[in-house]
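Q: Can I see a sequence and its folded structure?
A: Here is a first one.
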Amino acid sequence: MNYARQLLAWQFPEMAHTKSKSSNPGLLPPLWAWLAKRLEISRAGKTRIENRYKISIAQDYGIEFDPILELHAGWMCNISLFEQHSEARIAQMLSCSEFSTYMRVFDNFGFGLRVRSRLLTRIYPFESFLGINRKLVIEYEVREVKRTERNRKNGETTVRRLAGDIKRIKRNRSRDTFKMRLGMGTVLEQSGDGLVEKASGSSLCRISLWQYVLIGVETGRLPENQLTKELICYRDSLKANVSEQGEKLLGGKHIQGKLMRKVVNLLFQELCKIIPLT
């Protein structure tokens, strides 16, 4: 696509940066279909591009289309048809009764077809995250506090624990495994004399969650329900976190990372509610 757009930059510059898509199954993106001289193109799209080409500056200079451009456009058409065929098969598979419970939860989040299919392949069946008795695996561990823990509220600082104190930590192993499977887990790796915490799990799911946060949560284009309201409120609270001088304490990537973790935690909670843990 990038090479085809480079050729369009001087052979049809008016359409070089146009995003060409088709919303009707069986029809190709108008620009690529017209360049490849394919028949699977809407009449309106074909007419619009032809009228645009009649007044193109390339016509004034007598520039013709390169055969390589037609070849690349044909490849784009084949890819588009393959994507449509694959998505139709995926949609049919997701409509099976075995996945109906998961689809209801995904609908509340507003996940698209590709996002929900990727997530489902990692978390189905949800019972695999539970213990032998089909209950959440909860463990407790004792840890020494390395740094003094403080809370700042209403202009006052409260010390929770001092360095060297012993605290008891609750670990939800079912949720931790769930997060790891979706690419939102962390592992410690040795780096020199210290340990470095790095993201671990499915990188594809991590990318899908990032796209969902960027396109859905950041823009607010989500179904209206209590769950998405909680996501939006959490987003606003992160962006409102500023210093006394009005400077933002969290960067864009940091906020997106926190939102991704929030989405995974909410997804786990919703699945726990709708799937009986008995």
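Q: Show me another, different protein.
A: A second, unrelated one:
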Amino acid sequence: MIVSVVSMPEGIARRAPVSEARERLAASRFLFVDAELPEEAPPGEQPVADLLGLEADDLPWLGAERETARAEFLGDAAAFVVPAIEAGRVVHLHVVATERYLLTVHRGPAGLVDRCVARFPRERPPDAVATLFLMLGEALETYRRSAVQALLEVEELEDEMFRRRDPQQLYRLARLRRTAAQLHHSLLPYHQAAEEFITRRVLNRNFPEERQRLAREYQRTSRVVLTEIEALQEAARRGFGTYSSLVSGEQNGVINRLAIVSTIFLPLTFVTGFFGMNFAYLSDELESRAIFWALAVGLQVLFLAGALYVLHRTRLWRRFREDEAVGEDE
């Protein structure tokens, strides 16, 4: 286990052995401690709460693998399992906050913690509660950045579709839709738990006004981020609909052209079938070459003239040319 101790409010961070972190947690008035565990728990791993000298009865989940979202009070401490996005995947940060210290535990490196520590010397949070909301807000920012990036990718894909359709675009849309579902599925349970926690415990008359302000600001940010993720889901669904509509439009144009060609050659089909029949009238009365050319060629010419007249009057050719011109411009 790698332990980092940050002296607050100065924001000075340094690595420390577990024994020193344990002593300072028991004595310091304002301290931030971050514990990085191996990505996979080794057999017989000692509980983090025992190593750091905390009350282990309420913290058996601290540092455990595959813990679900959590936001609750444990006596005089607040406990959280906070989801965040790191390198495109969901990680969970375990947080315990009291009036004296803020403890975070995670498996593997966490850029979220490093970014927060980098902000401490500049923002100088006055107490552990302000540091907690700073940490929770940074976790929401990881979701916001992921949602905005994915939304921009969806919009770029839609622009590409109008220029040229490619089956690979469907795969990219499916991947972005899965990303949106993953963001929503991982954030929504935590959002509901944190919303209930803040509404019932923090936003009451016993809490100082400054802490209530931090809580309200966090609530607004959380709702905005969740709305942005839902907008990403809607954009991904719209992208699939756009692709289907464009492909259907192209198929309709091809079918219309085939219908016109079939209509033009319909007289030839009729003449071929007509002269292929074997009955007495055809062989006795329509046996001259002149009658054959009159029916075969004359009927074809008349039908073509009628078809071209109808196409000209209904302006179908103009529509096809305009559609082709638009396609070339795109």
